[in-house]
Amino acid sequence: MKKSEAENQTQLASRKFSPQLKNLQVSMSYEGLSLKAKQGKTLEVLRRQYAR
Length: 52
Known about the structure:
By secondary structure, this protein is mainly alpha-helical.
């Protein structure tokens, strides 16, 4: 059984590009950009930082 042309087009259109994280970081570094690094701040540190 062969797939019809419409089914092939639907299958190709539903595919999404998702780069590997390492490749994305290298590519962004060439452009002078970077991803936000998660910093594990404690609740106490945040309270002191934003205390008024």
